[in-house]
Amino acid sequence: MLYSPVALNKEFKKYFTPKGWHNYKVTCDYSNEHYVGSYKPKSVGKIPYRDMDFVKDKVGVEVQFGKYAFMVYNVCAKMTIFSKLAGIEVGVEIVPIKDLADEMSTGVSYFEQFVWDLKNRGVSNIDLPVLILGVAP
């Protein structure tokens, strides 16, 4: 049996939502962005947005059972964006440890490699404190 990332995300939602944690969504307005030359992207039917899985009491939580790039984006960009837009002061990133990642139905990144990369990246003056929580099967 392999674990499904989609099913695991649903289980986290079932746990967090009754405890007062809620999804926080912000609309992205790209209309004032600057473009080189005459290029401007076409309008898309869907309204673009960014969201954080769970927010409560100035804490932002992201559950990430996806590819490596999403883990890095969550901690190095999204947490900073939501600090500004949602007032979060700290973050939590929930990711699988390698043992769980090896038993998942899709290839996902895992805690050990993520922590190594963050340690070797160093700290930036825009970072906020984020707990990286590795979960096991």
Task: Give me the secondary-structure topology.
Blueprint: H1 5-16, E1 22-27, E2 49-56, E3 59-63, H2 68-86, E4 90-96, H3 98-101, H4 111-121, E5 130-135
Parallel strand pairs: 3-4, 4-5
Antiparallel strand pairs: 1-2, 2-3
Q: What is the CATH architecture descriptor?
A: 3-Layer(aba) Sandwich
Number of alpha- plus pi-helical segments: 4
Q: Just give the CATH class.
A: Alpha Beta
What summary fits the major beta sheet?
5 strands, mixed
Q: Got a strand count?
A: 5
- Secondary structure class reads alpha/beta
β-strand amount: 15-25%
Mean pLDDT: 88
- With strands numbered from the N-terminus, the spatial order across the biggest sheet is 1-2-3-4-5
Distance between the termini: 12 Å
Q: What's the CATH topology name?
A: Restriction Endonuclease
Overall structural domain count? 1
Any idea what the radius of gyration is?
Answer: 17 Å
Shape: globular
Q: Provide the low-confidence segments as ranges.
A: none
Helix content: 25-40%
The H-and-E topology, N to C, reads as HEEEHEHHE
Mind explaining what this structure looks like?
- With 137 residues, the chain is of the alpha/beta class.
- The protein has one domain: Restriction Endonuclease, CATH 3.40.91.
- Helices cover 34% and strands 23% of the residues.
- The chain is built from four helices and five strands.
- It has helices at 5-16, 68-86, 98-101, 111-121, and strands at 22-27, 49-56, 59-63, 90-96, 130-135.
- A five-stranded mixed β-sheet has the order 1-2-3-4-5, sandwiched between helices.
- Strand 3, helix 2 (68-86) and strand 4 form a beta-alpha-beta unit.
- The longest helix has 19 residues, at 68-86.
- The model has no long low-confidence stretch (mean pLDDT 88).
